Amino acid sequence: MKGDVETYNENGTWKNKVEGNSQASSTHDTKDEATAKGREMAIERGVEHIIRNLDGTIGERNTYPRERDPRNIPG
Predict the structure, then answer these.
(1) pTM
(2) 40 exposed, middle or buried (CB, 10 Å; 0-12, 13-18, 19+)?
């Protein structure tokens, strides 16, 4: 989906980037801070929030609003 929000680590800094943008929308010292801001951004946009682990693998994916989640799995 266009405009998804991705939370990731780059050179020791946690960042949020909206799909399609060339630069990060926000930077944070901790993963928790970045995740909270990324979730807020995804909820406002009504898109998916992709949270990457330190090694770059996807650790979590959340779709907002929840009823748009294509997997139809509770939780």
Answers:
(1) 0.84
(2) middle
